[in-house]
Design brief:
Keywords: Membrane, Transmembrane, Transmembrane helix
Largest sheet: none
Organism: Streptomyces olivaceoviridis (Streptomyces corchorusii)
Transmembrane segments: 63-84, 118-135, 140-159, 179-200, 212-229, 291-308
Protein name: Integral membrane protein
Number of domains: 3
Strand content: under 5%
Number of helices: 13
Order of helices and strands: HHHHHHHHHHHHH
Distance between the termini: 38 Å
Length: 318
């Protein structure tokens, strides 16, 4: 099990010092397949720091390009979350019946039972395609997918391609107001980020393995396969924990390197989520107090900026 901890470290580190680290763990905790929780947290934190330093040391692309790429990935994932169940059911030809997530009608596709208003595709295919293209560094494929998201949101009513906006009612978001296909700030910001990436030589973009899609498939299974209710407090708080973990990871990476690239995705998500709350205050789901939510969305921005400046200040005397 100790080998699972090595996954937090970059490949170059694993090849050089992986066996040495495993030997140290085996010597320090003989007979145990897993170190104590405090040691696990320390190793995971060190792994994030090592990955962050490896990213900063890679001079193949400027920091701001990497930051915009990360922001586009975060926004594509944010746009996909409310439609995980929909895409899962469409891909496996499932009629969810009473487990449908707040659509205007119970029949989604020709095979669905009950009164049916046929639509050809789930809206979630657009952010999913955008996410896959961005993972592989194919911004020229992600750009038309993001543009199609804007079109689908702007022409939601009366269309049968994605149905009535693809999704109606509440989404999974416990940390902010619901985000639907009609939220053009999200799709517009994502499209702008993809346009910048497509114009800046796509060959310079970082390419991630398809293995990064494993969490997406797992999330689809949880949402669609297990029929988790979309407004379930447990699901919303689970998403909240994931978001806080991501913010802590960005802080650890910034503190280790003094680099500003992780500030860009945090700022993009905060702007989109804050805008949704301000525009739709009545739709806020109140799973957390309003002030707490705003602090969690906005406070990381100055915190990351100050952390980067301090780290750079410490690096100068060295």
């Amino acid at each position: 099990m100790n080998r699972l901890l090595l996954a937090a470290y970059p490949k170059s580190y694993r090849s050089r010092q992986g066996e040495e680290l495993l030997a140290c763990l085996a010597e320090a905790y003989p007979g145990r397949s897993w170190p104590p929780p405090r040691e696990v947290a320390a190793l995971a934190c060190a792994g994030v720091q090592a990955r962050a330093r490896a990213v900063v040391d890679d001079a193949a692309r400027p920091w701001w390009l990497d930051g915009i790429h990360l922001a586009a990935l975060a926004l594509a994932a944010l746009a996909l979350v409310p439609y995980l169940q929909d895409v899962w059911h469409w891909a496996l030809h499932i009629d969810p019946g009473q487990h449908a997530i707040a659509f205007h009608f119970s029949g989604w596709y020709p095979w669905a039972g009950g009164p049916t208003r046929i639509r050809l595709l789930p809206y979630g295919l657009l952010p999913l395609g955008c996410l896959i293209a961005l993972l592989r560094g194919r911004a020229w494929i992600a750009l038309p997918a993001a543009a199609a998201m804007i079109w689908a949101g702007a022409t939601a009513h009366g269309r049968t391609l994605f149905g009535s906006e693809g999704k109606a009612g509440l989404s999974y978001y416990g940390l902010g107001a619901p985000l639907t296909a009609r939220d053009l700030v999200l799709s517009g910001t994502l499209c702008a980020a993809c346009a910048v990436l497509a114009l800046c030589r796509p060959s310079r973009l970082r390419r991630h393995s398809y293995r990064w899609l494993a969490p997406v498939v797992l999330a689809m299974f949880v949402a669609g396969g297990l029929h988790i209710i979309s407004v379930s407090p447990a699901f919303q708080r689970g998403l909240f924990v994931l978001e806080v973990t991501a913010l802590l990871g960005a802080w650890v990476a910034t503190a280790a390197t003094g680099d500003h690239r992780w500030l860009i995705p945090v700022a993009a998500v905060a702007i989109v989520r804050t805008q949704a709350i301000v525009v739709q205050p009545d739709a806020f789901m109140q799973s957390l107090p309003d002030l707490v939510v705003f602090l969690l969305l906005i406070a990381p921005l100055p915190a990351l900026a100050i952390t980067a400046q301090r780290r750079q200040g410490q690096a100068l005397p060295e």
